[in-house]
## 1
Amino acid sequence: MKTLVLGLGNPILCDDSVGIRAAQEIGKKVNDPQVTVAETSAAGLSLLDSIVGYDRVIIIDAIQTEKGQAGQIYRMGTEDFSLTKHFSSPHQINLVTALELGKMLNLAMPQKITIFAVEAEDVTSFSEKCTPKVEQAIPEVVKMVLEELDA
Amino acid sequence: MKKITIDPITRLEGHGKITIFLNEDGSVANTYLQIPELRGFEKFSEGRPAEDMPQITQRICGVCPEAHHMAATKALDDLFHVEPTSTARKLRELLYSAFYVTDHTTHFYILGAPDFVMGPDAHPAERNILGVIGKVGLELGGAVINTRKQNHWIIQTVGGRPIHPCFGLPGGVSRAINEEERAKIEEIARGSVEFGKVSLKVFDDVVLKNKTYLDMILSDAFTQKSYNMGLVDKNNKVNFYDGKVRVVGPDGKELCKYAPREYLEHIAERVEPWTYLKFPYLKKVGWKGFVDGKDSGVYRATPLSRLNAADGMATPLAQEEYEKMYSTLGGKPANFTLATHWARLVELLYAAERLLELSKDPEITSPNIRNIPTAKPDEGIGIVEAPRGTLTHHYITDEKGVIKKCNLIVGTTNNYAALFMSIKKAAADLIKPGVKITEGLLNRIEMAWRPYDPCMSCATHALPGQLPLEVTIYDAQGNEVKKLSQGI
């Protein structure tokens, strides 16, 4: 099963880098020719370009929810995301629309997409480090993704 | 006084909040556009080597990294007092043209077209690219994806990395291209020219042949008579990569044409207490408030402004479309905000034609891609046209090239005052006493600002880091009824 682990985010925007940081750690620990680990700052339609051709995709990104606690980790399938206004970069279209577009155009879409989202505290300040609770969540989400890969 | 809030604003980058205050009778008293975000980029860059700026600034936003990369690269040329080689200039413009093809395609089909193709009264769930493709057909949908994908390949190949090029250097670029790459770029460019023509035909079929839309484009509700800004080459034709900044008034007369080094003589920034964003305006005209007209220093920097500020397009097919556009709109300059979507497509075609021209240039595969700087750095200014408007990077460094001070005026910042006015005008013209406010009406107000394709993340980039947010509601007597705040 061709798998892509994709860390999304902005590496210089504080907690928005969490997906990228996690992917960097996962990349060091994965040694399977069927698994590609990548990072990107793309979103929406550009994301579609990245995931086409894989059977399974695991995405890691920052999220901000109304009542979430910084560092909290959520595991979701795409059906959980239809109402998100802010996924990675809201400028383009959200992930779910991108996926539906891919299906509509008969592109080789992955059969399984899992998203690990880390609740962010600060996604508006320029910084190369995350806030403490989010930093602490990085090894945790790495572990969860590695377990997901083994499943 | 009733309060209506449109929040979140769909299909835009970052946060934005439009608040409309109504009178007792249901008419609009006032409208405010407020950006609560603060980013702190200038502070973040202090102490860093200026040569890192093309890499760093392109991270500000995932949408137009190439624009920041290019402006930063040109600022470095200026900072180190070095001219790029002829091949380097052409490679930079080639990459930049491919970028424009991707960016304008994305905006039109994903952000702008849904309003027109589906109609402003369509259900929000349909007012997106899926609805658009449902109407224009799967083949065109595939062409949208493909054009973007292929031009992204050009950016990656020429720029050295997907999305975030590692390409610009003071005096040149980091890699040359070979004949195999060049041939593929030429092939992609030809396809992109065809795609540009098709997109203009879509606009013609769906928008211009529909009287309701054409009337809306020409309506007073979406008209604004502000100054127009854009980069022009030595023939006063639109150029995205290089040239002088030309400003033309709503009456069509040139106000000024300046080189990057002179920008502070022409542009000042106004601070207003109700927002963290600063409003650039034309110094020579002066700040007269949020009003249009040739006595107000408010200006616009958008695809339409660029076409208004220039005397034409430098490539033949785009020039034909340029002439057709102005003939339909009743001459130059065109002050119809919604026509920005049309201008964007003319620019898309130009970018594709320019890409093709450059791909066939005999110098384009030359290995002579860099002049090594020898002078000491001190101050550098680089200006390009970002898709969203004129982008200025200004660095002041010590003699080792370490940033002491940095000022960026990004595309959307130029348009902030005009944006505010467009929304206010659309609100006042469309929300009237006794008229039921439906979702479609609210989307019409958003339609006033979507032509600007605003990127709010770029537009607010100053300290401090906390995120203050305040919502205030006043009754008809002006008494504060409720105040909610966070971080204050």
## 2
Amino acid sequence: MKEFSYERPESLEEALQVLGANGSEAEILAGGTDLVIAMRDRYAQPKVVVDIKHIAEFSPSLTWDGDTVTLSPTATMSEVVADEGINTHFPALAEAAVVVGSVQIRNRATLLGNICNGSPAADTAPPLLAYDATIVVAGSEGTRKIPIDDFIVGPGRTDLREGEIAIAIELAVPPRLVGSAYERMTRRRGTDLASVTLCATVDDAGVTQVAYGSVGPRAWLKTDETGVLADPAASSEAKAAVYEEMFVDASPSVRSMRASPDYRRAMLRVLGARAVGRATERLQKLQGVS
Amino acid sequence: MSETVHIEATVNGRDRAFEVAANHTLLDVLRDQLGLTGTKECCVVGECGACTVVVDGIPMNSCLMLAVEIDGRDVTTVEGLAADGHLNALQQAFLDVSAPQCGFCIPGQLMSAHALLQRNADPTIDDVHEALGGNLCRCAGYLQITEAVMVAAEAGRQ
């Protein structure tokens, strides 16, 4: 690892000063599960590493206020998995967080870091897209709130500008009843990057959302307002046509070692049906239908 | 010359104050600076778990942490399991069921298992598989490793 200086700000203001003064020479350290590897492999060579785990404003890492949960940059995957409210209201996010890496990784890796790292295979991107998460970003000119669909840009890229720091993810419990589920495809159970990630939500008005990743430069969110996917009586041909349209943005890389493009496209349809099926079952439970 | 940072941490029950280079990982410092070579370096990308240590009761990959990050925290390595020259129940169980084959992954397996048993004295086999899922054994001695953790848990409950 190349040499760098280590900064450990204790307030957001102090962190913004350090980031402002160092621009692109600074890297933010939260869980470090991506950054430390990048620095060891020398594709990140910061002059300054800014450890944000001691910033007073980021504690506690997970706060519920009425129907909204706010997760700070220090909220780890393990904390997400352990939170009762998230399991109740955002079960697909808990399902995605619990399959990231291993126990050791989940104890360090943060939810916000998973998004800011910008991996197309980020497990938590599809559920956060489907739950319409908001990313809060702070900079020298104040804070801005960005819908996650606009925040995610492409491989390793987000809407975060130089000198800015993402300070929170906000999730609001939707006003309608919503069932949701997360599915992923990996080569083996246990520590592996996903070949396909997919989250489905089905609400009580028959609207189905499908967010999918690891099959192109970023995760995409698609909506079916026709009610076909949510309708258990709809024919598989009718559903296949809707899925076909939803998965139009899938452009799996031919160079990936994890899975071939054909396999990934085929598995999108399988995971889509599985996730929509489980989401529908969850919705029916919420509706009290046995 | 890299920046050095003064840190204070408890390592295997002993309070220590020392200087670490900002760009050294916890794994580097444990092995090369503190002489605690029980913690192994293997994949260095967080996939194999050979470098697992327990920080404030939580298992982590020491290859993915900067050493400065343990400032003010409590670190247990495999050397911290035995007391007064005697193996603890978990280590003894690993020996009794012949869980170690080549032995290289065992310190990491022990630390993940130790952290599990600290918070769950009565784990199911699925709990053990989940807790040790981030520790690879290329001799593939998983059956015996799982058995050892279950034996140690049983012994701990008596």
## 3
Amino acid sequence: MTPPTALAFDTSAPWHLSEQVSLRDESFGALAYHHGTRRLVFLKSRELVDVVRRVGEFDSADAALDALVPAAERGRYVTALTSLVRSEILRG
Amino acid sequence: MAESSLRDRFERGLAAPICLTWELTYACNLACTHCLSSSGRRDSNELSTREAKALIDEIAAMQIFYINVGGGEPMIRRDFFELIEHAVDQHVGVKFSTNGTRIDQAAARRLASIDYLDIQISIDGADAPTSDRIRGTGSYDQARRAMDNLKAADFGQFKVSVVMTRESVEQLDDFEKLANHYGAELRLTRLRPSGRGVDVWEALHPTLEQNRRLYRWLLERPNVLTGDSFFHLSALGEPLSGLNLCGAGRVVCLIDPVGDVYACPFVIHDEFRAGNVRANGFQDVWQNSELFRSLREPGNAGACTSCGSYDACRGGCMAAKFFTGLEMSDPDPECVFGHGESALAAKKVLLRPTPSPDHSRRIPVSISAR
């Protein structure tokens, strides 16, 4: 099994979609499956799926959120990404 | 974004199943009394290695993350390792259910060397007499030997899988101890009147009181896996962990050894057959079968309309109703408020469906220790 990683979400650091995760688009967003932890995670909006796919292109999560997400909704996205870091869908 | 709307989305179906069960063969060296697939003898029409590999390629293309492989006893197929290795090579995870009889030391080492592989070993009691009454003499010891071999081979975490019967439900704490002993996960599933299970269901399904205890036990242990099989118990209060819906044809389905696609692993019956993968592949069945389309229509609460708990249990399990002779609009036969029992009692004539495919052996099986 994958050892537990640091679970804090530092938005000033770079993050990317884990190589062990498969993403499948669905009408409500996407399903993410982590082959290591064997956990299935539901991403409940297309916009969130876009952020998860592209966050690795940016130098930091902050930069990704600046570019991809309306400022007013930033808090919601940080919450969602934090839970994805905790479930190891996103890696630092 | 609310959970309920996500559940509604699931009930309308997904691009591909979350959970695809594939029974590799009807051949089995055991003859469990509750076998869902009435297994025993191999079917001469089972998918060839080439066909099975093509199906795996299609599963990978559909981005189905993992498959639940079963049978029969899947390890009896000579190409078993070839097929599971073909799947994991394409990042299709494999979880397979086995009686463990074929997991000797060498097989355990080979299994331990494969990534993305998960194993469920079935027992039906926490001791040999209880388990063997269902699975056959010697089967419990062989399953324990398989667990010992996996542990010795450093396989990592496997699953101990138990069907909840009137007897095994009294041993919940012992199953937990056994799983802990191996560092394994415990998985409990519901006894269904499917396959040969219809012959033992009445005598062996847990009583209302046992189901209430099981519900409380599970609620305290969200880490115990259930494959979402006890959602009918969620009508007792707080929902159990899981999606709490009938996923048949919506998020789950079953492919049988001859390539027939059924709505779920518990309804191997003509009435729930959606098509065959040999015609135009699996994706065509998943997307276009009339049966699956109708299952994805909004459900009708039927007799449960006036029950305040319908949202919690959604009327229960389709297979449990069908094989006990209830209508889809009736309550689950194990409805926690007893409405199912009343519905069964009220039927003047109970027409149980005749089983469709039956691959049971015609002679009793005996297992020799190796």
## 4
Amino acid sequence: MNPVIRREFVGILRSPKTFAMLMTLTALFSATVVLQWPADNSSVSGTQSLQVFRVFGYGLLAGTIFLVPAFPATSIVNEKNNKTLALLLNSPLSGLSIYIGKISGVLLFSLLVLLCSLPGSAACYAMGGVSLVNELGALYFLLFCMILQYSTLAMLISSHVQSSDAGVRITYAAVFSFLLVTLIPATFLSGTTLLPSSFLTAAEWLRCLSPLPAVMEILGDGDVGTSGLKQNSTMTRFLILTILSSAAFAALTLNRLNYRIFDRSRSKGTITNDRELSTRLVRRLLYVVDPQRRKTGIPWYLNPVMVKEFRCRRFGRSQWLLRLIASCAIISMLLTFLATTSAESWGVTTIGPLLVLLQVILVVVMTPSLASGLISGERDSGGWEILRMTPLSTFRVVTGKLLSVVWTLLMVLMATLPGYVMTVLIKPDLAPQIQMVLICLFWITLQTLAISAAVGSLFRYAAVSTSVTYVTVIGCFLTPMLVWLAREAPFGHDTVETVLLSTPVGAALNVIGARGFEDYQLLPNAWWISGIISAAMFIVLSIQVWRLNRAV
Amino acid sequence: MTTQAPAIEIKNLTKRYGEFVALDSLSLKVQKGQILGFIGPNGAGKTTTIRILVGLLKATSGSATIAGADCLTETKAIKRLVGYMPDDFGKYDNMRVSEYLDFFGAAYGISRGKRNKRVDEVLEIAGATHMKDLFVDALSRGMQQRVALARTMMHDPEVLILDEPANGLDPQARIDMRTMLLRLADLGKTLIVTSHILPELARICDVVAMITKGKLRAAGTVDTIMREIQQRRTFEIMLLKEAHVQQVAKKVTDWVESEGKTSDKSHQVATEVTPAETERMVRFSTALTDEQLAPLLGSLIHTGETILQFREVATDLEDAFLYVANEGTQALGETPRASSPISQGASE
């Protein structure tokens, strides 16, 4: 047996956290079915079992997406930083053996995650109406292919990054791009006559990179982004793309698994101020804020911790922030324009919910990456002790850190304002609803920030805090949506309404008039609940910071 | 004659974690401008002491003051008075050295104009001016230590507490670090330096404190401690033939034991004799005086042994530390730690 497989797999299994996670998953999957198992056997019908199967299927998809990428994302970078990769490369094991060992360890673990769901799937099958091969088998096969794709992608990212924290962050961002961003072009381009057909074909193929359309097809939900047109080739395209992309990711990672992985020269610290005039002028044109320009000191009126956070995050550096904001502004205007000019069925009432969802996704994907490491990153790097030795008060340190995230998120939210302005221009009577939506978005951002900062602060290592925070935040925001998906059965109207109150996402969609959200009364309770959750999370953060900061 | 108030004064400092005593009534004084070498094995209580001094930990009992400020109650004043350089560098990604120092200057409330000057000054003192525009996460260990020292000096503290500043440095960098620390002492700074590289400390420290198991075992100038240690000296007898090593070792043991019985200080005479066959050497350490030892050589020659050399091994701080550490463990009724390679007669 490949020693790397043994070490990787056994290593993962030995962790008490893994055991707890697998047990929790088994309990959750079983509970989902038990809760929905009909009390009266006579009521078992194909329709009801299909509804249970839908909830189970989406839950399984969400579970694998949240849990699996964290392990391969840190696999190579941890090995590199612990100096054990050099030992492995120096052993008679080839790069291919090491790679196969590592990926097999992850895949075996993923199989265990899938196995945990067997009680649930068996119950679904026992209820009848669900085909063993065409539905259950297809779902498991598709999920396994998706795991293969995400694992190879995560390992490729892990082979390029310099810290496990960065590995986790970039992997989750990439996974969510594959899952959701790939759907956007096809969703908005369908039916348009402005672009050549080759663009539409490319968008169709790109859409199939996401497992969501194929899963929806298996679960009998039609397909996302096809405007009601059934796409029979979705599953086949997904499998082709997954196998090809996984092979490409594996080849690229293998290409890194040699001594070149360590071959990284130290930055020379080039400064634009010291370069020739022509170079300075060119850089001035290319960068609004040149990252290589010598910085002036931190002014007295700014919180030094906030400035430090901006400067020490690559993403937080101003030129990246400005690029992101510009991209968001352009995309939001473009989406509104394309959607209103493409097909008859696309009106502002359709584009509104999509804009809200896009913003929620942006906030949910970005915030844990920015906020989870505020405290744990500092503890991980050894900076916390040094910060404690400065006269900065705990309050100033925490507010500086939170402000660095708040400003970034506010700017991102502001960047999507042009889309709403355009919506209001097209349909002025929507203005009051848009205002309510913006308030909901504010609460969503605050709640995400509070959860990310509080959960992230509970861990000693940045990579762990990032993974757990992602799982928590996405779980918090996705669970109400999964419950809403099962709104007709087995969950009743009141249950769905109560669950939707846990985040203001449902409220925002309700206000903007999204299909399926009209019947719920969510405001202003959703704002109150969001405020209470945020306050509770900030209290948790304060207690944790106080605990870490006290001399005992 | 005027008595200057000590820069650092520790009185009966005790730190307990439940049943475990991390620090046991530690008392110590360091005068202004002195360099104190704080020596102890891993887990001895050095870092605990330092963390109490800088206000990161609370003592169970006792007191500690730095320039008159109480370390336990006046933590704000302590933060201004003390520059602490932990073993961990505390790097931030994507930050240049100048930005890094500027941040800590701002954290200490230094105005922007003064801060720019101060960054240049501390980099100059640390010999790191050329690193100003480099990224801190791209620095080598030696460079990081210089920048860390510069960071520690940003707010011009009276007392510098440096935890293992020479750790991981190459010989040249260690020499540079030593020079820097001496320069800081010349500037009137009081320094507490911990290190495992004892010869480094011996060269720069005015006073040394040795701690094991939370207890102070010895304190004073390097010379004072050496004199105390010299009461128990190490000797080497080099032989012509390897085969005679065991035989000579036995003769030395018997001889020293018989001599010890007649000595007034028989309790101090306990001797360790170590044969090292591959080196054709017998080593022993003893508290016997020159007068008592002198007949040993004659006795060995008289019994027919061919002696090439009979010499005393100079004791350094390392031996002194090991001696003190072993005394400490013996006092606690534990098995003594292995002695230094010299006194063990390591033959590999």
